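Ex. 9. Protein: HTH merR-type domain-containing protein.
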Amino acid sequence: MTLEQLAAHSGVAADKIIAYTKAGLLPCKDVNAHFSADDEYWLDMVNCFLENGSSVEDLKDLMPLCEQCAAQ
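Predicted structure tokens for HTH merR-type domain-containing protein:
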């Protein structure tokens, strides 16, 4: 799905998705690429962490570890 479709489907503003992608928080590392259902899952997880007090800086270290564990 496109950035706009992901934003509409997830309820997260496109500019936030761009910021999260550029920060390396989503598996898709290119905002011009198509996002997958996996990206939407990770976006939901990122939002959950942020809503519960984590910072983007905290997640820059945490999310790659989560992705590694999920791939195993």
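Check your answer against this statement. The chain has a mean pLDDT of 91.
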